[in-house]
């Protein structure tokens, strides 16, 4: 298994054994609940969260996914999120968490390695307060080598109750809508066209 976490070093020094036990329990239960949830994932897209992503090319087959998580008003607060990485599409050994360092004080970030028939997981756990009341949180990011055809796309995710480890809801990440910047040549042509229209009107 791969474990990579962004936690406060002082906290780890105070309770190293307990922390490792919690991480191990989370990784095992994440695999179990994913297996039990397979029929549910195929039948529903309802989720307590909207997770959008942007993809940045780093050259060659290397990319970075950046995630924005929005709590859906009326749903339970979000304490724990698992985002799936299919090892047939993502080179598992290349998965690297590169989230905004500011997030590490409030969110534990852990990579859980794949097992037979189960994907690798990016496990996000609220250390202080859950995401709630329609709030949006950005800055989670992961870099990887893409093994699939075309560009990396949508991923399945689960919202999990951290006390019972029951799955609250499940869904898929959605590509963020981005408005492309106008090309310089297009701006120049448009400017010339507008200038000609203005001149023709003033001359008459």
Walk me through this protein's architecture.
- The chain is of the alpha+beta class.
- Helix content is 26%, strand content 32%.
- The chain has 3 helices and 10 strands, in the order ααββββββββββα.
- The protein has helices at residues 9-14, 16-43, 184-203; strands at residues 49-59, 62-71, 80-85, 96-97, 107-112, 120-126, 136-145, 156-160, 167-172, 174-175.
- A 5-stranded mixed β-sheet has the order 4-7-2-1-10, with no helix packed on it. A 5-stranded antiparallel β-sheet has the order 5-6-3-8-9.
- A hairpin with a 2-residue loop joins strand 1 (49-59) and strand 2 (62-71).
- The relative contact order is 0.22.
For the report, how would you describe the main beta sheet? 5 strands, mixed
The total of helices stands at: 3
Q: Count of DSSP E strands?
A: 10
The overall pLDDT, averaged over residues, is 78
Q: Please provide the ordered H/E string of secondary-structure elements.
A: HHEEEEEEEEEEH
Which residues sit in consecutive blocks of at least 5 with pLDDT less than 50? 4-19, 34-45, 178-182
Distance between the termini: 77 Å
Structure summarized in a few sentences:
By secondary structure, the chain is of the alpha+beta class.
Main features:
204 residues, alpha+beta, five-stranded antiparallel sheet
What is the element layout, followed by pairings?
Blueprint: H1 9-14, H2 16-43, E1 49-59, E2 62-71, E3 80-85, E4 96-97, E5 107-112, E6 120-126, E7 136-145, E8 156-160, E9 167-172, E10 174-175, H3 184-203
Parallel strand pairs: 1-10
Antiparallel strand pairs: 1-2, 2-7, 3-6, 3-8, 4-7, 5-6, 8-9
């Amino acid at each position: 298994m791969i474990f990579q976490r962004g936690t406060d070093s002082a906290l780890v020094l105070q309770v190293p054994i307990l922390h490792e036990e919690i991480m191990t329990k989370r990784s095992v239960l994440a695999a179990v609940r994913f297996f039990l949830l397979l029929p549910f994932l195929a039948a529903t897209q309802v989720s307590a969260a909207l997770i959008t992503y942007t993809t940045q090319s780093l050259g060659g087959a290397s990319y970075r996914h950046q995630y924005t998580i929005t709590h859906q008003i009326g749903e339970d607060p979000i304490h724990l999120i698992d985002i799936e990485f299919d090892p047939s599409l993502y080179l598992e050994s290349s998965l690297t968490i590169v989230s905004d360092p500011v997030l590490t004080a409030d969110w534990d970030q852990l990579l859980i390695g794949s097992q037979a028939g189960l994907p690798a997981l990016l496990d996000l756990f609220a250390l202080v307060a859950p995401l709630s009341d329609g709030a949006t949180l950005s800055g989670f990011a992961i870099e990887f080598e893409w093994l699939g055809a075309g560009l990396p796309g949508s991923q399945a995710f689960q919202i999990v109750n951290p006390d019972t480890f029951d799955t609250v809801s499940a869904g898929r990440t959605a590509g963020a809508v981005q408005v492309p910047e106008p090309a310089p040549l297009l701006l120049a042509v448009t400017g010339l066209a507008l200038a000609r229209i203005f001149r023709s009107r003033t001359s008459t």
